[in-house]
Amino acid sequence: MKWFGRKAAPSARPLLLAGWAHRFAAEPWPRGYEAQVREAYLANPIAQRAVRLVAESVAWAPVFAAEDRAERAVALVTPGLLETVATQLLLHGNAFVQLLQDGEGMPAEAYPLRPERVTIEPDAGGWPAAYLYKVGEAKRRIAASDGLGRPGLVHLKAAHPLDDHYGLGCLGAAAAAVAVHNEAGRWNKALLDNAARPSGALVYEGEGAALSAAQFERLRSELEAQFSGRENAGRPLLLEGGLSWQALSLTPAEMDFAGLKAGAAREIALAFGVPPMLLGLPGDSTYANYREANRALWRLTVLPMAARILAGLSAALAAWWPGLRLEVDVDRISALAAERERLWRQVSAADFLSDAEKREMLGFGPRAA
């Protein structure tokens, strides 16, 4: 019984059943901040690990103040605050820290606000006069200064060449690579669901007219329901009515999604300033070893980020502690121990320097009498 109808044309007509070519049509990557955060930080392991690697390194960097009376100011800069601010600067490009005062008017807590909820209100001259914090329908206006020269909110931002008030994060630059990486993962998942290969083609070799639209849809639905997916892998296919099965395959270049994902992952790491070797990406020969990559992370990304954050907080807290300067104690960073050892060896070998000059070059004060 030829229930597929009769064929009119003498040549074979392939009926493609793979469906993988149109299943993942090209779509523009997310443009909004929340959508980009969901695609990158929440759904992409490379972007999340890169951000957390930088933010956690900033959080646990040893912070000190040159002034002995500023212990309370140093206590405000907690690892949780540094990690949150560093994450916001990487993703959004802006971080807003509200300084909450106690009954004596001294800073008691530094609380980071979500940057996408803050809007800057400039004055007639273009300088920030207040910050509007909006959560749903609720709005709160925070003045830039309390009238005594003490800031109510600290705005930390990354450089933005086209904006006077807001900084530029890394999500926009990484959005395309994140979209490619996520889509390659979905593609690989679809290949696994379809026995890790394209389905194939049905070739109609019988006599009679071509398949009608109803017959075509019935044939495709039956094959998708009974012969596709991992639970149906290996099931024998019974054909009739002049149909024959012709298996299809992808070329090695088309199947090279591992290389595609690796290239996208390297671009993501580049956007967030993390050496690819630290993210476990194969084929990276830029750095001789893991120690060099870790040192490059600290010198090129972590320390500049920490310096930007501490400089902004120092300028704000200087209203209570004049001349305050918060810094990272580089000598206590284990990743830079090799650099410190080399410097000490070079200074110690300089016979033309006195002991006092050597101590000054290494950052130590005069020897106690």
Based on Cα principal axes, name the global outline: flat
The number of distinct helices, counting runs of at least 4 residues, comes to 11
Radius of gyration: 31 Å
| Elements, N to C (H/E) | EHHHEHHEEEEEEHEHEHHEHH
The end-to-end distance, rounded to whole angstroms, is 110 Å
In spatial order, strands of the major sheet run: 1-9-10
- In percent terms, what proportion of residues is strand? 15-25%
- Average pLDDT over all residues: 79
| Quantity of strands, as a count | 11
Largest sheet: 3 strands, antiparallel
**Share of helix, binned:** 40-55%
Low-confidence parts: 1-26
Structural class: alpha+beta
Task: Present the secondary structure layout.
Blueprint: E1 13-16, H1 20-23, H2 33-42, H3 45-59, E2 63-65, H4 71-76, H5 79-91, E3 94-101, E4 107-113, E5 118-122, E6 128-135, E7 138-143, E8 153-157, H6 171-193, E9 201-204, H7 213-227, E10 243-246, H8 257-271, H9 290-317, E11 326-328, H10 337-348, H11 355-361
Antiparallel strand pairs: 1-9, 2-11, 3-4, 3-8, 5-6, 6-7, 9-10
Helix pairs in contact: 2-6, 3-5, 3-9, 6-8
